[in-house]
Write a structure and sequence with these properties.
The complex is a heterotetramer of chains A (about 180), B (about 400), C (about 100) and D (about 600).
Chain A lengths: L1 H7 L3 H26 L3 H21 L3 H26 L11 H24 L4 H4 L11 H9 L3 H20 L1
Helix pairs in contact in A: 2-3, 3-4
Chain B lengths: L17 H6 L7 E5 L11 E7 L2 E8 L7 H5 L4 H9 L6 H16 L7 H29 L4 H21 L8 E2 L2 E2 L7 H24 L2 H7 L7 H6 L5 H5 L34 H26 L21 E8 L2 E8 L8 E5 L1 H6 L2 H4 L3 E2 H11 L3 H5 L1
Antiparallel strand pairs in B: 1-2, 2-3, 3-9, 4-5, 6-7, 7-8
Helix pairs in contact in B: 3-4, 4-5, 5-6, 5-11, 5-14, 6-7, 7-11, 11-14
Chain C lengths: L5 H21 L3 H27 L3 H31 L13
Helix pairs in contact in C: 1-2, 2-3
The chains are: A mainly alpha (about 180), B alpha+beta (about 400), C mainly alpha (about 100), D mainly alpha (about 600).
């Protein structure tokens, strides 16, 4: 009954947002599946780009614009390029394929499936029923970029600095070699 | 895992000392890259095999022979007068100078030299120097092109067009002239040639300063060429380099300043690399020597044109040139081509057809220094160095 | 069409997480494993943002996601550096070869 | 102008004339078939008796789009039939150069005006559809008018005359306007219209950019550039090139990764287009006014690299790999100074939204951020250099440097895929120039302060409403200003490309890490302290404010002088073009 009422109150925009969610989710999951299945490491990286893009789209849907663009600029524009660099520098031939044994694949798939079922059942209907506790519809007020920036420089200043220090440490560790 | 077998599994106990590992940030692979024969920066069909490590070029080996046309062998089957067109096709950017070298070699061999009139000699000098300007213009323009500056190339070709028009008016051809020939020049100068040439020189001289502003003193250009591809004077002499490449290394040697060159009465300087922007003998020095030589050639042409005025009516083509019998003697004669010393060795046997014709090409001799200079340079420098040596593959392969 | 709520995002995140774990388990190329780790981190981020949107409405989730992304970048840089050394020593990035305890 | 003869027309004229008749008949039949649909829809709707309240009914909701769509379809098919029927006549008319020129200019203006009108309508509907206000203000034009779209719509339905802000009073008996505006209330429709406008503009950029680049290069090199295709200064050159490229062989190198090779052009060419999602042309002229537009655009420019790397990698060619690696290290390193230079206007304006940044510069050209303080002035040049590198334009065009790497990552590409890389490159060029125009040169603000429009109207005593609107939009804020500024910066990119030699790869990285990066850091710090000292909420130092004012005036004067100098040199060159080429004119050539 409740859901019907909710359906009726929804505007076209909400339906479009739902459609967009399914599109982005399909892109990211399909690309993630490609990442797992693909044997060619360059293509794996390309599929990762698809996943990152899809997830960035989801962030836009969730009104987390800042995270979406950070995802695009840091992940897709920086980390992924770094990974491709690593691939190019470490593979003698572009088609370097190391195939794991079949038994390992089956085992991994089984473990993965088990994990998925476990997590899903836990979050949806277990003791910790997150979804039930959450609001049915997204909250009207979603944090703006300025709020996020302010939080980063006030409440979370120390973790932010530590985070930056970690990046600096990574840089220093690289140069000492 | 037993089912994974790498083709070239390295031995982990291999003799890779820890020092080596610490020195290198990353083990890189050397790569063999073919630069040419079809490559925009090799000025024709030069093939340079580069052994590279990333952007560094460890070794550059020029391979030649893609444009071989048996030019010397043909010289043994035709009379000298008939061989003149073949010399055009050797250094196709400086056809007049090639004609001149071979014609003078044959004239010296047969003793025809003494019968050449003053006017002929002056016309030859005018055309040789005009062609030097044209050739240096191409060199200047394509050098800019090698370094990514497209515009100077078209400016240079615009100016070269005027020179080619002058040549066309005199002999009808714009690339393979065969104008200077055994016994003189094929035709006397056309009407108003001297005036138009003076007009051209007045127009051209300030342009050189414009080019210096545009390219020679451009900061990026200097950064790309100064201290790059340094050839010391000793190396230049050791490798038998000649022309602007030799003078760029600081050696003041120009055949035109030698006695018997025909240039004794002309007043001109020989530009020499000073190391103005970097080291003596770097790419910039070789480049600026060419640009300055254009101005010196302008000086020579002006003086020659002044002298030409008093020689109206003299014979310009000796009739004996066509029916020459070569004595059973040999001669080696060389002149200063735009690219260096172009020498012809001719041996006759009493008939009209020489026994042996051999050319000493400046591009060929200058090219051999590539391997020495292109050690441990960047990939972009290879184009800069080959461009500054300025080879014409037609003459290298002959 | 089913109205999208928090549970959708949680299921998606679980899917990405499992795929990331499978990727880590099946790839033998070290960089493939790194890519699997990135997938797992992404799934965690989706969770953070979704909770921030649906449950708290506060900025905290976004801030944590920023931290995760920044740390992932640093981690990737470190990991690539390690793989380079690995490659220098063993001429391969096959992790099964990395069973020798010497540099 | 050579008339265009299609090869298949030449080959078999008779057979084709048969097909032609068939095609005309078919198209005419489809066009006629629309008429009953239109009539049926019209009767179904009964427009003269429909009240706005009835429009909530879903049946009525669907009819106007159906009706409009059918009319559009009929016109389209009838037009196609006519075009095939009279193609010779059309060809003859088109082949006259002046007609072609008019069409060319008309297309440009048509698109600009169309997008402008669309933006006006979109903006108005967005603001006024839901709340039925009595008075409303057209944003950035600044006119108040008392008819919201709701009231226009209602009045129009009732057959009353409507007073439009731009056109004046119009009295229409049938509520055509109401139906025209009807679909615009749906966000999806508005988005589709906006997408159409953006894609139209984007597809103009490479076509115009390539033609213009060739003309500029030609003029710089004392030649004409393309002169043949189209008739008037080769305006159709890009179209001709595009058609040629589309028909070329689609070569995929054997031994490479064919899938990635085919995919790479798309990865290079889609992100710059996506950047236009957030790039505003004016206050309302933006597809989505993101609050993180700046970072979004930077991210899009960053993703472009991935396509280039894949292109180089999949080509199975060593030169391509060189190009790809150069591109990767160049882009990754230049993104940092570029991003940091962009932080400076963000900091000065105190806003991350591009619209907000542009509106902070609305008080005349001396308030543009490039002149506002010395640090911003430096930041502009730092950004411009970094943006040249990130667009791989000369002197940073190392990834495709033809004298070193043959063509770099493009070596193995041909035909349509090759042209897609160029499409992406020119769009990216325009994006970075547009970004520079918004962040440093006042975006869509005119060089005059906003109050100057009213002063001018009072001085010139303009009473006509339309003229007033025109003056206000030109003297205050207009997308035309944005397009002009971005195009000027685009021109500077071309100018630099055809003047400077190329930098070597180590110098490129040196320039980034040793010069640009420290410089941007210093400028960022300097700007922070300067703003802190000047702003009223900060230290509010009197002496610094005085210096700030003087430097602002000096920089603005320098900017004006630079512009005057450029225009003066160009005018001098135009007047003395014979002299500059040399007084040895062509007709004086020796031997002629």
């Amino acid at each position: 009954m409740d859901s019907v009422a909710a359906e009726q109150g929804r505007s076209l925009k909400d339906h479009m947002d739902d459609l967009a969610f399914y599109i982005f989710a399909a892109i990211s999951v399909a690309s993630a599946f490609g990442v797992v299945v693909s044997q060619n490491i360059v293509r794996t990286a390309l599929f990762l780009l698809g996943t990152l893009g899809g997830v960035a789209g989801l962030y836009f849907l969730l009104d987390a614009n800042l995270i979406a663009v950070i995802q695009l600029i840091v992940y897709a524009g920086g980390t992924l390029i770094l990974i491709v660099f690593g691939i190019m520098l470490t593979s003698k031939s572009p088609w370097a394929e190391f195939k794991p044994p079949k038994s390992q694949i089956v085992l991994a798939a089984f473990v993965g499936l088990l994990m998925f079922i476990g997590i899903t059942s836990l979050t949806l209907s277990g003791e910790v029923n997150w979804a039930a506790r959450a609001t049915k519809t997204p909250l009207a007020t979603s944090p703006k970029v300025a709020e996020a920036g302010e939080a980063l420089l006030t409440t979370y200043l120390v973790p932010f600095e530590v985070d930056l220090t970690a990046i600096g440490a990574a840089y220093l560790a690289k140069t000492e070699k | 895992m037993a089912d994974v077998i790498l083709e070239s599994q390295p031995d982990i106990n291999a003799d890779l000392s820890s020092d080596q590992i610490q020195q290198q940030d990353l083990q890189t692979e050397e790569m063999l890259v073919n630069m040419g024969p079809q490559h925009p920066a090799t000025h024709g069909v030069l093939r340079v095999v580069l052994r590279t490590d990333g952007e560094m070029v460890l070794e550059a080996v020029p391979h030649i022979g893609y444009l071989h046309r048996c030019a010397e062998k043909i010289g043994e089957t035709v009379a000298p007068y008939q061989y003149i067109p073949y010399t055009d096709r050797m250094d196709y950017l400086a056809g007049m100078n090639n004609n001149l070298a071979f014609a003078q070699a044959v004239e010296k061999l047969t003793g025809l030299e003494s019968e050449i009139t003053e006017r002929t000699k002056l016309i030859r000098i005018v055309f040789a120097e005009l062609n030097r300007i044209a050739s240096h213009l191409v060199s200047f323009g394509t050098y800019g092109l090698d370094l990514g500056a497209f515009t100077p190339f078209l400016y240079a070709f615009r100016e070269r067009e005027y020179i080619l028009d002058l040549f066309e008016s005199a002999c009808g051809a714009r690339l393979t002239y065969s104008y200077i020939t055994v016994g003189g020049v094929t035709d006397d100068l056309p009407e108003r040639f001297v005036d138009i040439t003076r007009e051209f020189l007045d127009y051209f001289e300030p342009k050189v300063h414009e080019y210096n502003l545009l390219l020679s003193h451009n900061h990026i250009f200097i950064k790309r060429t100064a201290n790059v591809g340094v050839i010391t004077a000793q190396e230049a002499l050791d490798y038998g380099l000649s022309g602007p490449v030799l003078r760029g290394s600081g050696v003041n040697f120009d055949l035109r300043k030698q006695p018997g060159s025909g240039y004794e009465e002309f007043d001109f300087n020989v530009p020499v690399g000073q190391g103005e922007k970097g080291t003596v003998g770097d790419c910039w020095d070789r480049y600026i020597v060419r640009v300055s030589e254009m101005l010196e050639s302008v000086k020579i042409i002006r003086q020659a044109l002044d002298k030409l005025d008093g020689t109206e009516g003299q014979e310009t083509l000796h009739k004996k040139g066509k029916t020459l019998k070569l004595p059973a003697d040999e001669i080696y004669y060389e002149i200063e081509n735009p690219r260096g010393q172009l020498g012809f060795f001719v041996r006759g046997n009493g008939s009209a057809i020489p026994d042996r014709v051999k050319a000493r090409g400046p591009s060929f001799c200058n090219l051999c220094v590539t391997e020495k200079v292109c050690e441990d340079v960047l990939l972009g420098d290879v184009a800069a160095i080959i461009g500054s040596i300025d080879v014409v593959m037609g003459e290298v392969d002959r | 069409m089913l109205a999208v709520g928090l549970s959708h995002y949680l299921v998606l995140s679980a899917l990405l997480f499992s795929l990331g774990v499978v990727c880590m388990a099946t790839k033998r190329n070290a960089i493939g494993i790194l890519i699997g780790v990135e997938l797992v981190l992404n799934s965690a981020n989706v969770n953070l943002i979704a909770f921030s949107k649906f449950q708290t409405g506060l900025v905290d989730g976004q801030v944590f996601a920023v931290f995760v992304i920044l740390l992932a970048a640093a981690e990737a840089a470190l990991a690539i550096a390690i793989f380079m050394n690995f490659y220098n020593n063993l001429q391969t990035v096959d992790v099964d070869r990395g069973d020798v305890l010497r540099g | 102008m050579a008339s265009i003869t299609l090869p298949w027309v030449q080959r078999d004229t008779e057979k084709l004339s048969n097909y032609r008749e068939k095609a005309i008949r078919l198209l005419a039949f489809i066009a006629l078939a629309h008429i009953p649909i239109i009539l049926g829809a019209w009767f179904l709707l009964d427009p003269l008796s429909t009240k706005p309240a009835d429009l909530q009914d879903s049946k009525v909701l669907l009819v106007p789009p159906l009706c409009l769509g059918s009319i559009g379809g009929m016109l389209l098919f009838a037009g196609a039939a006519f075009a095939i029927y009279a193609y010779e006549l059309i060809g003859r008319v088109l082949s006259a150069p002046w007609v072609a020129f008019i069409i060319f200019i008309g297309a440009i203006f048509g698109i600009v005006i169309g997008v402008w009108l669309h933006a006006e309508i979109l903006m108005t509907v967005q603001r006024d559809w839901m709340p039925a206000k009595e008075t409303s203000v057209i944003p950035f034009v600044g006119i108040e008018y008392d008819h919201t779209v709701q009231s226009i719509y209602q009045n129009n339905l009732e057959g009353k005359s409507v007073d439009f802000p731009l056109i004046g009073a119009i009295s229409i008996d049938t509520p055509i306007l109401a139906y025209l505006m009807f679909p615009l209330q749906f966000p999806l429709v508005r988005d589709l219209v906006a997408v159409g406008g953006i894609i139209g503009f984007i597809s103009l950029i490479p076509g115009f950019g390539i033609w213009w680049e060739r003309k500029v290069a030609g003029r710089i090199q004392s030649r004409m550039g393309p002169m043949r295709a189209g008739g008037w200064h080769g305006w159709a050159q890009s179209a001709a090139d595009g058609i040629k490229l589309a028909f070329k062989e689609d070569y995929v190198p054997p031994g490479g990764d064919g899938v990635l090779f085919r995919l790479a052009p798309y990865i290079t060419f889609i992100p710059p287009i996506c950047a236009f999602i957030a790039l505003p042309f004016a206050t309302a002229w933006v597809f989505r006014d993101l609050d993180v537009a700046l970072i979004f655009i930077l991210a899009m420019l960053g993703i472009e690299v991935m396509g280039v790397i894949l292109a180089g990698w999949a080509s199975n060619n060593k030169w391509s790999v060189y190009g790809a690696m150069r591109e990767a290290c160049q882009m990754v390193s230049y993104e940092i100074p570029m991003g940091m230079a962009l932080l400076i206007p963000v900091m000065t304006a105190g806003s991350l939204s591009l619209t907000g940044i542009a509106e902070a510069q609305s008080g005349g050209f001396w308030t543009w951020f490039v002149f506002v303080n010395p640090w911003c002035f430096l930041a502009f040049f730092l950004y411009y250099v970094a943006s040249l590198a990130s667009c791989k334009r000369a002197p940073f065009d190392l990834p495709e440097s033809e004298s070193e790497l043959v063509a770099g990552f493009l070596t193995e590409y041909s035909g349509f895929r090759w042209s897609m890389f160029f499409f992406g490159e020119y769009v990216a060029m325009y994006v970075v120039c547009g970004l520079a125009a918004i962040l440093f040169l006042g975006g869509w603000m005119s060089p005059f302060p906003a109050s100057s429009a009213e002063w001018f109207i009072a001085q010139a005593n303009i009473e006509n409403g339309m003229l007033q609107t025109l003056v206000k939009s030109l003297l205050a804020a207009n997308p035309i200003w944005f397009i002009l500024k971005a195009t000027f910066l685009f021109f500077v990119q071309l100018w630099i490309r055809w003047t400077l030699p190329r930098i070597r790869i180590d110098q490129v990285l040196y320039a980034c890490v040793q010069v640009l990066l420290p410089a941007t850091m210093v400028v960022l710090l300097g700007n922070t302290l300067w703003i802190l000292g000047v702003s009223e909420n900060g230290l509010n130092l009197g002496w610094l404010i005085a210096i700030d004012g003087i430097i602002n005036k000096i920089l603005a004067a320098a900017g004006v002088l630079t512009l005057v100098g450029i225009v003066g040199i160009a005018a001098y060159g135009y007047r003395n073009n014979k002299k500059l080429v040399g007084w040895l004119a062509v007709d004086q050539l020796p031997g002629k």
